[in-house]
Amino acid sequence: MIETIRISEHLADFALGFDLAAVPSEVRTRATHLMLDAFGISLASTQWDFARQSLAGLRELAGDGGDVPVIGYGQNLPLRDAVVMNAILIHGLDYDDTHPAGVIHATTSVLPSALGLATRLKADGRAVLQAYLLGMETATRMGAAAKGGFHQVGFHPTGLIGTFGCTFSAANLLGLDANALVNAQGVALSLASGSLECLEDGAWTKRLHPGWAAASGITAATMAKHGFVGPRAAYEGRFGLYPSHLGALSQNCDLSMITAGLGSVWETMNVAIKPVPACHFTHAFADAASILSKQWHGSPIARIVAKVPPGAMKAVCEPDEKKKRPSNAYEAQFSVPYSVATGLRFGRFSLDALDPEAWQEPETLALAALVQCVPDPEADFPRYFGGEVIIELADGRILQHAEPINRGAPGRPISNEDIVTKFHENAARAVSRSHADNVLNAVLGIEKTTAVHLAALLGQKAK
């Protein structure tokens, strides 16, 4: 009888043979730009209350000391606390990249995990980039295999699946052997978490998910390095990741996607950069409304219809009353009605839309109240996060615009040059142009620097 190779064993074999030298140059270049985007967002986040309050809590837990810099705060924390904090900074504004097929923000957990551990180990920049790419290539595939199922049952793939990507990232830096790599994945299964209940009331817990994934991945890999034993069927087992979290929906999964194309098809190239600081599911609506704003000119509106992919409805359209009257910035970021109203009024959804004055503004709320979200069964979801806005004017005219492929998705990629522009816009909220340029040069030239240098540069105190 031939024994079937488990997924964790297949992935371990791939991870052991993973070598940055074999990664195409365009993939490495794109990866450094994904990193740059994340660091620009993290610098902008330092100016928000959620960041200061998160740091206060982690500082109290950590006590004195620490050897890993916190981005933009001029202070250090112990390794696991630092990666939690840095991930909160990257993900906290919901402006970070997404892998559409996996419906996962992979960079926000894998990057702070790789940089934090590499800083502790005093590794070079090539090691950081290699660990980052390995984490990205594994996490994105694991998310895609669920075919959007995790969101449907209330689990956040960024925290849940991110833990496994960070486990591979950490295992690569720690030099785990094949058996330890399998055990590490099994340990990660018991540490992975992330509930989407926060979407019901705008709670902050989603911001914590990627950091917890980063800390959990480092923990899983380090425990396995020292012989801690984990279950070997971490994914397909009776109580493995997919059966235990998806139940009946696990029948819709395609677990072959987890290992398909490893080392030849680069999912890192399919990661979408966010042009809008909100849930990716809302982008097409913000953009469509922004385009329609040029035709609208403030004419009285009878009704607005937003055609939404059925798989996105729970996250950005329900409950209806909260989506139309957000009580905090987080609810605003996960609201199709607010995105449509903001796009119509201002022709753009920027970070300014997250200010209390914006989501409490009566005229914007009046427009949001007119938005009716309806499911669009023709949407190509989750391949793309598209949408359509139809405005019925009081005089009978109809204005409509569809964005079937959201800006930044693989079908409409944002260029590396656009990423640089976005980085400078975000970084300018917290640091001088000269410091931003130093960060940019270090990140894009990461193969010629060290983790300690990059972490120290990022850790310098922002304004």
TrEMBL record:
Any Pfam family: MmgE_PrpD_C
Domain MmgE/PrpD N-terminal, chain residue ranges per copy: 9-246
Ranges of residues in domain MmgE/PrpD C-terminal: 277-442
InterPro entries registered for this protein in UniProt: MmgE/PrpD_sf, MmgE/PrpD_sf_1, MmgE/PrpD_sf_2, MmgE_PrpD, MmgE_PrpD_C, MmgE_PrpD_N
Family: Belongs to the PrpD family.
Name of the featured protein: MmgE/PrpD family protein
Lineage: Bacteria, Pseudomonadati, Pseudomonadota, Betaproteobacteria, Burkholderiales
